[in-house]
Amino acid sequence: MPKATPSSQDFVAIKDIKDGVVILKSGQMCSVLLASSINFALKSGDEQQAILHHFQSFLNTLDFSLQIYVQSRRLNIEPYLALLATRESLQDNDLMRIQLREYMDFIRTFTSEVDVMSKSFFVVVPYTPAAINISKGITSFFSPGQQATPADRQFEEHRIQLEQRVSVVEQGLSRIGVRTIPLKSEDLVELYYHIYNPTDPTGAAPVFNT
Q1: How far is it, in rounded angstroms, from Cα 23 to Cα 192?
Q2: Would the pTM count as exceeding 0.85?
Q3: Number of neighbours of residue 108 by Cβ within 10 angstroms
């Protein structure tokens, strides 16, 4: 009999996404943090050295690996232009309307000639359970018939261990001025969708709410 053609899901390493945790087919569990950036070039020499020193100390305190992922997306300027268009009709001053219209034309022209990119920074914190009970799996986010994920009770125990690692990373990065936000399940689904579908222009890059 001819071999069945593998589906695209066979090449995806993710088994499930549950309660803000990514579960890989290998059984490894990961939390993903959205991290703010630091304008390192604008810091003084002493500040730069302090940041490097604290970051080095932070890395030396870890007894587990980290993955730092940078995602670049072309910025969708249309929502911003739509907002400006609504404000144009509210202007009482003719000069202000003309200036706003010229500004909108400049933005359209500029973005048509230059790709305006937004960058998002992520820190992936992994945790590999020492032993996994595969006799009872949780519901798969992708498809049935693959390697089972941890049972619900064991999942909760391992999630607590993972959260402890996440706390260590959050505290370490905060010392160098980097804020972090753990991604929830829906944010993780969107993130990995765009990783595996890089040509899809839909969706906006995640941002910090202040």
Answers
A1: 12
A2: no
A3: 13
Whether residue 146 contacts residue 25, with contact meaning beta carbons closer than 8 Å, is answered with: yes
Which run of H or of E encompasses 194?
Answer: helix 185-196
Q: Is 23 within 8 Å of 149 (Cβ atoms)?
A: yes
Q: Which residue has the tokens 């992936």?
A: 124
Sequence-ordered strand ranges (E) for 36-106: 67-74
Per-residue pLDDT tens over the stretch 26-69: 889 999 999 998 888 899 999 999 999 999 999 999 999 999 99
Those residues whose C-beta lies under 8 Å from the C-beta of residue 81, and which sit 6 or more positions away, are 104, 107, 108
DSSP assigned state of 93: -
Whether residue 1 has pLDDT greater than 60: no
Q: Which positions ≥6 away from 122 have C-beta within 8 Å?
A: 32, 33, 34, 35, 68, 69, 70, 71, 183, 191
Taking CA 12 as the corner, what is the angle to CA 121 and CA 205, rounded to the nearest 5 degrees?
25
Q: Is the CA virtual torsion 157, 161, 162, 166 positive or negative? A: positive
**Which residue has tokens 């370490």?**
172
Give the position of tokens 């944010």: 187
* More confident: 201 or 98: 98
